[in-house]
Amino acid sequence: MSELLRSSSPDSESEVRNPIQSVDRALLLIREFLRSPSITVSAAAEKLGVSKSTAHRLLAMLQLHGFVRQDTRSKAYLGGTTLFDIGLAMINKLDIRGAAVPSLQALVEVTGETAHLVVLQDSNVLFLDGREGPRALRAGLRIGATLPAQWTAGGRAILAGMPASRIREIWENRPSTPLTARSNSSWREFEAQLEHVRETGWASNSEETEDGLCAVAAPIAEPAGRDAVRAALVVAGPVTRMTDDRIANTAKELIRETSRVADRLNAA
User: Fold this and answer.
1) 201: left (phi over 0), alpha (psi -120 to 50) or beta
2) Residue 36 sits in a domain of what CATH number?
3) Strands 203-206 and 146-148
4) Cα–chain center distance at 236
5) Same domain, 34 and 127
6) How far apart are CA 94 and CA 115, in angstroms?
7) DSSP string covering 48-78
8) Secondary element (H or E) of residue 188
């Protein structure tokens, strides 16, 4: 972690005397959610170089204003609705959600599985929008959730088109604990997965983010001559249904629909 996060541990009285320092620390905590989907009080205290009680007060204030929320089981803090709303407001300027809605619905109708629009957010992918599949056994909606980019089909679809230095940076910032036993664990394996995307135009993920779940994704081309959100469309379903043939057919549909989203963005 950057030395910017390191400072001496103040007591409560000094915090009151120096509210700017408290604001600075709160903002640094918010930035942590660009790197990791969750943070504990202990981890926050260590990263900021403050006491656990100080870290807890900062997180409680962020929770009060909706920037974070606490998981009732793990007690870790996750990104809250305010963070999502702010990001959504910025992303809406490109209207990528509006351009993707017809394609999300089309993918659900053609594949019978759940479809999502994801965007790159620092080292994670943010599930920006989605449509749930109609079957009883299906992948659930993850709108507003984030996952480490290198372990998701959508993340790899996006990363494959990015500069090598940025890809390496994201890899090095990955969480120390894999999401499942099948999450990629070596740089060589990760590079091979990205090369597959460059060769085929699509990425897949089998039980790397959640046991029993398979996902396929394709990147959305950036609109010409405009600042763009790096995004992808993803279709996910139970591994029991996602055979090799279904994955290949789903990939074709995804490539077709991502092209249509790009066309809508260019026409806007």
Assistant:
1) left
2) 1.10.10.10
3) unpaired
4) 15
5) no
6) 20
7) HTS-HHHHHHHHHHHHHTTSEEE-TTT--EE
8) helix 187-200
Q: What is the pTM of this model?
A: 0.68
Number of structural domains the chain divides into: 2
Radius of gyration of the chain (CA): 20
- Those residues with Cβ within 8 angstroms of residue 19's Cβ, 6 or more apart along the chain or in another chain: none
Helix (H, G, I), strand (E, B) or coil at 28: helix
The residues, ordered by sequence, that sit 6+ positions from 44 with a Cβ below 8 Å of its Cβ are 29, 32, 55, 58, 59, 77
N- to C-terminal Cα distance for the chain? 41
Distances (CA, A) of 109 to 43, 103, 148: 43, 10, 28
Instruction: Write out pLDDT tens, residues 157-204.
Output: 999 999 999 899 888 888 878 888 888 778 999 999 999 999 999 999
Report the C-alpha gap between 178 and 185 in whole angstroms: 8
